[in-house]
Each structure stands twice: as structure tokens, then as C-alpha cells.
Design goal:
aminotransferase; lyase activity; eight-stranded mixed beta sheet; transferase; Orn/Lys/Arg_deCO2ase_major_dom; alpha/beta; single chain
Length: about 950
């Protein structure tokens, strides 16, 4: 029998937690390949190496599979038994069956007995996979019972584990809506590892006493267990340890339903802070009650109130005597010409079309039934107090929030390079706008985000000028289009120390997915709001604040350093948490186009905002909203709660795989340089000092450190590639090379970069195709250089130099002209953008000036303040370079001249820039 080491070999590779599912799949496939070679090999020396390789892979997989229901611990004992006896041929057959079961996911639909070795059993997974393909998709079967796994935390022996597992298996009934299997772990650490590496876990039963330490030395938990130790936990009671574990599981995977089984004083335990447990069971409670309670909890998340109501409505016979001829498909089914719509879409989408708000349906404008319930479920899923569906995009969601919260002449602090909907929202609300400048990334023609010091400095200016009471809102984009993410909690905390009732609007259009990943979630608005509310209510915070205040009061309040160079803490007696987030659900989660949500965590919502919010919602929401979009938002929420953790994790894995190849492939590196953390976040905003999340030796192990501490981080699922070395600008590369030649679609480019975004639909095959395309393009650029003449090479070199060295500095916001400043002689910078916007409606107030012929420059040299009368928005970068009422600066003009894009909204090349006449600026109408 060969010498084995599986009983004593420690394994720490789960530190590569970010790629654990790929590691799992790849290792099983590699094991299958090694066993195939071993069975067919006659060379004894090579056989020894293969036996050792199989031993290592089995050891690795045993650790990973310890946290999964399939293959079970009993299955692994069977694998080791075959290995130890040297029955490699039989082991290969069993592993093949196991891999097929994992790939086809047949273990979700039926029991897979690995001890069976006959041919019929061996082919079951293949036949099952074929049946799934014939139904339409290998991983989805709407008629099958959805499958999940139940985690049981208890220090059980192996025989006891089997007893418990079998007891729950015996509870299954054909009429159950779901089917589940059981995963057992024996320690505090193992429970946390399980919820991190096994996305199938949807419920957790914490039972009796359990130790702290895992039997494995796993680094994946390093960032989650900071401050905890075995000593800390050994003095805790059973209930205290269980409650702490529950809170940590909730922080990692808040969607998991948790239950406590206690052998102690169940009544006393129930009186503690056990908010994360759905229910407490006493040890004598029978399994059937636990079984039904678990299934009911899962069903509560699986429900889709509006989608279910719409499906029921579509089955009802109705007589349609209202608007919409297409309702029930009547105008299509009776048509001799339009039948192709049914051929393409199917009949159900038309059966579900109606303008009725009765018959089991609901009104989006004033919901009382299934839409109301669906929005309540969305609030639960995204950690909000209230959530609202929006069927015409986040542009509208942004305007709704702004109109609900801002009155004319309220001051709003807003990042200048935000989405254009915010700028137009300021016009509609009549806000006085104070623009904040993001730090520039001149080498890549893009902006980062607004530094906290810049925000605090602006607030401090309003405080010293006596106008802080007029400042109502801070509006920031998180994350930016390019993937720069704020430290949301820190921004809110320090701003609230200066203005304790400040309202925050976080535009999270590109960040809806972030709430379903434990690394991303703390940098979301809703999570930060809840965390800060809990923090400010605690006695520990009051002690921290009192100590800080005593130290702060000893400093000079007129010294900027007092406010800007140290962290600030808000007064717990006056602070109010008021946070709003807007999500483009359709951009990063499942929803039809234009499906968006508004999420609210505002302690003053009921008292101050509910009525104006309703009016703003009525103002901007169609009286004929698309029910299909609402249904898709309902289903998208359910999917995010049930499998968001798994899907987002796979999305990040795909992005990390793409990055890893681009970091290490010599030819790809020559033409395509992936921007890393240090490229997009200057050192002064990287308190961790982490330059890149990836190291060729240690892998992806620095991400949590940066995300926990830094002012800004980069979302690794958004891959910005500098392409200046190709000599091709971003817009041309996007259209002529990626789209026209290979059908690859992207949204965002700058002058010398392109942005690739992974999402929850990105597959490993998609990544492979993109890498193949980039490699083909790199070879094409190599051949181009090799085959070019000397003059042609000079042309290429000049293009490369232009795209890598001759990049115009990105301009800051200049200033509002005094005609549009509420306090022209004051020290604060806000402007009345609405006044300027509508002043331009009268032709006599405006004129066109061209800058391509020097006309505008001559006016500026003569001393004239040239003031924009419109928004000027180049694509890319896609945000206003000029807004109504803004003075044109030399830097802005230089930037516009250097742009090599053809799409500039608000600029007509044949006429020039639309600007205000000098007469209009001398006599503007009162604001």
C-alpha cells in the first residue's frame, strides 16, 4: 500500500478565499486527470509522483468539501479507503461520477450514491445533464424543488453527525417546496469558514456547546476574527458564544436564516439580544418542528409577491374595456402582420400586460398589496428602512430623491463629475449648488473621487460664514463608473461631526450588487447608516466621544488643522442618520432595463420627508408603469437574497482570473496594462499602503486590508486597461476593434483606457473569450510593427506618445459667475444653476462663440468673463465640463481643444459654445 500523508498534512490554500469555487472545480478536474494517467501508466517512478499528486489533491479537496453537503464526509471516507488500498481504477470511476454530479448539479435533484459502481449508476449524471440541457439550461429547472444546505454547528462525533443528518433527511416530504441537505461543523471558526466558502448554505442551526478553533489553519478568516481569540471565548457562556457567532454570520451573510438550539435556560436566553436568530428551540424540540420552521423561513425569502400576482392575473379570463389594445395580447393575436412579436417574446408577456390595478394587482403610485409587499422585501434584502421601485431608471430615481429633500435655495454639496441626472435635478429643485472636485488621474483622462478633506473644508467654510444651516445635502457617486469606492462610513461620520443633520444621497447606480458580498457591503450606504445608528446608541461610543471631545476642545477651533487633519466624531445627542441610495438594479443585478430602486435609511423620514417624497414620486413616476419591469425587480430581489452571495462571488472570481492573466502574460502586458490600486488611488488616500490586491506568490490576499482601512479603494470587478501602447484611442478601440471585429461590448472609455466590467452573468467562458481576443489583438499589433516601414513606425510612435505623454490636465470646476451667486461678495462658492439654466431660454440672452478659430480666446484675453449658458458634456468622459452659469477657464478650454471625441452634448462645432451675452450678465433676473 502506498505511503500516504493525508492524515497529517496541513493546508492553508483556503487563504485564496476569493477564488475558492474555481479552486474547487479545477482541483476536482485535475484529480480526475491525474487518476486517469495513473491507471494507464506502467512507469513505476512516474506512478509514485502521480500517487503523491493524487494524495495532495484529495487532502486539499477534503478540507474544501468538509464545508459542503456533497460529497459528504462519508463519501470522502470512501474515497480515502479506495486510495489507501491502491484501487486507483475504481477510484477514478468514483471521481468521474462525482465530478459529473457537481458539473450537472444532479446532487441538487436526487441522491448520488458514490458507493455504486455499476455502469447504469455511473451514467446517471450524464443522462441527467442531457435531460437538463433539453429542458433549456443545465443549471436551471423551474419545475424542480429549489435546493439549499442547512449548516449545523455542534461539536458532534462522526456517528452523531450521521444520526443528525439522517434525522433531517427523514423529514423530507414530496410536497415540500424545497429540498435540503445538511452540513455539520464542530467549531466557531469552521462555521464562519462554511458560510464564506459554501454559497448553498441558506439556513444555520447553532446547537449546544462548540470550541473556538478550527482543526485547519486557514487564513481566510484573518480579517473577520480580528480581536477575537480562544481565550476571549473560553470564558463565555454557551448562549454568549452562540449569540456572538450569530452576529458574525449575519455580518458575513445577512440573508442566512439562523436558529438557536439551546440546552440551557431557554427563557433567559430568549431575553437577551438575539435579534439575528429567527427562533430559539429547546433541545427537546423535535426535528419535525425545526424542519418546518426552516422551510417556512426560506419560503419567506423565496416569495415574489408581485411576480406571483402577475402570473395569477395572466391566467384569469378577463374582458378588457380599458386602454392598451395590447393587453392580453388581443391586438397581436388578431393581427395578420404583427404575429412575429408573439413568435419572438411568447404569449405570457402579453397576457401579463394591463393597465388595471385591481384583480390581485396593485398601483405603483399608491401600493397597498403585492407591490407594497415586494418593496418591503426589497428593504429587507438591501438593509433599508424603506425601498421604492422605479421603472424609468436611476436618472429618475435621483430626481425623485433630490426633489423630495431639497427646497429652492437649499445648498447642496455635489461632486462635479457625477451623473448628469443630478445636475438636472439641481435645476428642477432650484438648489444652490456647491461643486466639489474629485482628485484627477491626468495620465488616464479620468477622475477619481472627492477627498474627505475637500468635503470637510467646504463644510467648514459654510460653518465659519454662518451659512451651515442652509447646507442640506451631500451628494456623491459610490462607486464611480471607473470603480473608485468611498469609505462611506468614515465620510458620513466626519461630516456629521460638523453638521449633525446632514442628508446623504449616495448614487450607487453601479453598486447594487455590493450588498451581497461581505467585503463590499460595509462600503454601501445602507450598511453604513445602520452601523452608525447602532454605534451612536451605545454606551461605548458615548465614552469614546467624551474622551475625544475633551481633547478636541483643547485645540484652536480657528485652525484648519483642528478640523481637517484628525478624525472627527459627532455628538450622539444631536446626530441624525439620514441616508438615501439609488440603485440601477438593471445594471448589476437581475432586472429589465430601466428597473431601479431607491433605498432609505432616514431617522426623520416619517416626520419630515414622507409627504414630500410621495409628491416627488408622483411627479416623476408614470401613471402607466411597466408591470414587467416591476415583476423583474421583484424577482431580482428574490434572486439576490437567495443566491446573491454566490453570484457576486463568482463575478469577483471571474474578474480576478482576468486580472491575473493580464498581470502575468508578457505579450498582453506589452499592450494592455491593467490599472491597479496605486494607479487609481494616490498614496495619501491609501492608509493601508496596499498597492495591488494581487501578489504572484501569495495570490489575492490584500484586498480586505485595503477595503477595511483606506479612504478609497478600487472595485476589482471593474477592470480598467490602459491601451496607450497600442497607439489607438479608447473610442476607436471600443468600436472598430472590440465591437466590429469580435462582438465585444463595453460602455466606458477614456482617451487612452477601456473599461471591462464583470457582472453576475459573466462566465469563465466569457473571460476566456475576452483573453483570446486581447491576445489576438496583441499579436496583430506585433505584426503591424514588424511589417511597418520606417515612416509607418514613426506614425505609430507618435500616436503612442500622444496617448501616453500628451494628455491634457483635467480641469477643476472654475466658478459660478457673480450674476448667479446668491452672495457675490461672500466666501462660499455656491451658485444658482436654475437661474442660469432658464435665463438661456431667451435667445437674446445668449450667443455662440467658437474656440476653434480663436474667437472665444480673444474675448477672454480682452477681459471678458465668458459664461456657459448650457451643459457641455463630452462622451467620454460623460459628465459636464461646463454647467449653466459657469465661467469658462483656460484649463477647460484647453481640455475641450485636446479632446478627440466627436460626441459633445451642448456644443455645436459649426457654431461654437452657447454663452451668455455681457448684457444678460449685467442684468440677470432675480433668482
Amino acid at each position: 500500500m502506498p505511503e500516504t500523508s493525508h492524515t497529517e498534512t496541513p493546508y492553508t490554500a483556503l487563504g485564496f478565499y476569493h477564488k475558492i469555487s474555481q479552486l474547487r472545480a479545477d482541483t476536482w478536474n485535475a484529480l480526475k486527470r491525474d487518476l486517469g494517467q495513473l491507471v494507464r501508466l506502467n512507469d513505476d517512478s512516474r506512478a509514485k509522483n502521480l500517487v503523491k499528486a493524487v494524495d495532495i489533491k484529495l487532502t486539499r479537496l477534503e478540507i474544501i468539501e468538509d464545508y459542503h453537503a456533497f460529497p459528504s464526509k462519508e463519501d470522502f471516507r470512501h474515497l480515502w479507503s479506495l486510495f489507501d488500498r491502491g484501487e486507483y481504477g475504481l477510484l477514478e470511476k468514483v471521481v468521474k461520477r462525482l465530478v459529473r454530479a457537481l458539473i450537472s448539479e444532479s446532487y441538487r435533484r436526487r441522491h448520488v450514491d458514490l458507493s455504486e459502481t455499476d455502469a447504469d449508476a455511473e451514467d446517471m449524471e450524464t443522462l441527467d445533464a442531457l435531460a437538463q440541457l433539453r429542458r433549456g439550461h443545465p443549471a436551471s429547472n423551474s419545475s424542480a424543488q429549489p435546493y439549499f444546505e442547512l449548516l449545523i454547528v455542534d461539536n458532534l462525533s462522526a456517528p452523531e453527525e450521521e444520526v443528525v443528518r439522517e434525522a433531517f433527511h427523514n423529514m423530507r416530504r414530496p410536497e415540500d417546496r424545497f429540498v435540503y441537505d445538511v452540513v455539520t461543523v464542530r467549531s466557531f471558526e469552521d462555521a464562519l469558514i462554511a458560510v464564506l466558502v459554501n454559497p448553498n448554505i441558506q439556513a444555520c442551526l447553532i446547537r449546544y456547546e462548540f470550541p473556538y478553533k478550527s482543526k485547519y489553519n486557514l487564513s481566510a478568516l484573518r480579517s473577520y476574527l480580528e480581536g477575537l481569540s480562544e481565550k476571549v471565548l473560553e470564558n463565555q457562556s454557551e448562549a454568549e458564544r452562540s449569540i456572538l457567532l450569530s452576529s458574525m454570520i449575519h455580518e458575513l451573510r445577512p440573508e442566512i436564516d439562523q436558529f438557536l438550539v439551546t440546552s440551557g435556560d431557554v427563557e433567559a436566553t430568549a431575553s437577551r439580544d438575539i435579534r439575528h436568530f429567527n427562533r430559539i428551540f429547546y433541545r427537546e424540540t423535535d426535528y419535525i418542528e425545526q424542519h418546518h420552521t426552516i422551510l417556512r423561513a426560506i419560503d419567506n425569502r423565496y416569495r415574489t409577491p408581485f411576480f406571483d400576482a402577475l402570473r395569477e392575473y395572466s391566467k384569469k379570463p378577463t374582458g378588457v374595456f380599458h386602454a392598451m389594445p395590447i393587453s392580453r395580447g388581443k391586438s397581436i393575436t388578431r393581427s395578420h402582420w404583427a404575429g412575429q412579436m408573439i413568435d419572438f417574446y411568447g404569449i405570457n408577456i402579453f397576457l401579463a400586460e394591463t393597465s388595471a390595478t385591481s384583480g390581485g394587482l396593485d398601483s405603483l403610485l399608491q401600493p397597498y398589496g403585492p407591490i407594497k409587499k415586494a418593496q418591503e422585501y426589497a428593504a429587507r434584502a438591501f438593509g433599508a428602512r424603506q425601498s421604492f421601485f422605479v421603472t424609468n431608471g436611476t436618472s429618475t430615481a435621483n430626481k425623485i430623491v433630490v426633489q423630495a429633500l431639497i427646497k429652492p435655495r437649499d445648498i447642496v454639496l455635489i461632486d462635479r463629475d457625477c451623473h448628469k441626472s443630478h445636475h438636472y435635478g439641481m435645476v428642477l429643485a432650484g438648489a444652490h449648488v456647491s461643486y466639489l472636485d474629485s482628485y484627477p488621474l491626468d495620465d488616464y483622462s479620468m477622475y477619481g473621487a472627492v477627498p474627505l478633506k475637500e468635503i470637510k473644508k467646504t463644510l467648514l467654510g459654510y460653518k465659519r460664514s454662518g451659512q451651515l444651516h442652509k447646507v442640506k445635502m451631500l451628494l456623491l457617486t459610490n462607486c464611480t463608473f471607473d470603480g473608485v469606492v468611498y469609505n462611506v462610513r468614515r465620510v458620513m461620520e466626519e461630516c456629521l461631526a460638523i453638521k449633525p443633520d446632514l442628508v446623504f444621497l449616495w448614487d450607487e447606480a453601479w453598486f447594487a450588487f455590493a450588498g451581497f458580498n461581505p467585503t463590499y457591503r460595509p462600503r454601501t450606504a445602507m450598511h453604513a447608516a445602520r452601523t452608525l445608528r447602532d454605534r451612536y446608541r451605545s454606551e461605548a461610543y458615548r465614552e469614546e466621544y467624551d474622551a475625544w471631545k475633551a481633547e478636541f476642545d483643547a485645540l484652536d477651533p480657528d485652525d484648519d488643522a483642528t478640523w481637517l487633519d484628525r478624525p472627527l466624531l459627532p455628538d450622539p445627542d444631536t446626530v441624525r442618520i439620514r441616508a438615501y441610495a439609488t440603485h440601477s438594479t438593471h445594471k448589476t443585478l437581475t432586472s429589465l432595463r430601466q428597473g431601479s430602486m431607491i433605498h432609505v435609511w432616514d431617522q426623520d423620514y416619517r416626520q419630515k420627508v414622507e409627504a414630500p417624497f410621495h409628491e416627488a414620486y408622483m411627479t416623476h413616476t408614470s401613471t402607466s408603469p411597466n408591470y414587467q419591469i416591476i415583476a423583474s425587480l421583484d424577482v431580482g430581489r428574490m434572486q439576490a437574497e437567495m443566491e446573491g452571495f454566490e453570484l457576486v462571488h463568482a463575478q469577483v472570481e471571474a474578474a480576478l482570473s482576468l486580472r491575473e492573466q493580464l498581470y502575468t502574460h508578457p505579450l498582453l502586458q506589452k499592450y494592455f496594462r491593467v490599472l491597479i490600486n496605486k494607479d487609481m488611488v494616490p498614496l495619501e488616500y491609501r492608509q493601508s499602503g496596499v498597492e495591488t490586491f494581487y501578489d504572484p506568490v501569495t495570490g489575492w490576499n490584500k484586498m480586505e486590508e485595503a477595503w477595511a482601512n483606506d479612504e478609497f479603494v478600487v472595485d476589482p470587478s471593474r477592470i480598467t486597461i490602459a491601451i496607450g501602447a497600442t497607439g489607438i484611442d479608447g473610442d476607436t478601440f471600443k468600436n472598430e476593434y472590440l465591437m466590429n471585429k469580435y462582438g465585444i461590448q463595453i460602455n466606458k472609455t477614456s482617451r487612452n483606457t477601456v473599461l471591462f466590467m464583470t457582472n453576475i452573468g459573466t462566465t469563465r467562458g466569457s473571460i476566456a473569450y475576452l483573453l483570446d481576443v486581447l491576445l489576438k489583438l496583441a499579436k496583430e499589433f506585433e505584426y503591424r510593427w514588424e511589417e511597418s516601414s520606417r515612416p509607418e513606425r514613426k506614425i505609430i510612435e507618435n500616436r503612442v506618445h500622444s496617448l501616453t505623454k500628451e494628455l491634457p490636465p483635467l480641469p477643476d470646476f472654475s466658478r459660478f459667475h457673480d450674476a448667479f451667486r446668491p452672495n457675490p461678495g461672500g466666501s462660499t462658492p455656491e451658485g444658482d444653476i436654475r437661474q442660469a439654466y432658464f435665463l438661456s431660454y431667451d435667445d437674446e440672452n445668449t450667443e455662440y462663440l467658437r474656440f476653434d478659430n480663436g474667437e472665444l480666446q480673444a474675448q477672454m484675453r480682452s477681459g471678458r468673463d465668458v459664461v456657459s449658458a448650457s451643459f457641455v458634456i463630452p462622451y467620454p468622459p460623460g459628465f459636464p465640463v461646463l454647467v449653466p452659469g459657469q465661467v469658462v477657464s483656460e484649463e477647460i478650454l484647453y481640455f475641450l481643444q485636446a479632446l478627440d471625441v466627436t460626441e459633445i452634448h451642448g456644443y455645436r462645432p459649426e457654431l461654437g459654445l452657447l454663452v451668455f451675452t455681457e448684457e444678460a450678465l449685467r442684468n440677470p433676473p432675480a433668482g
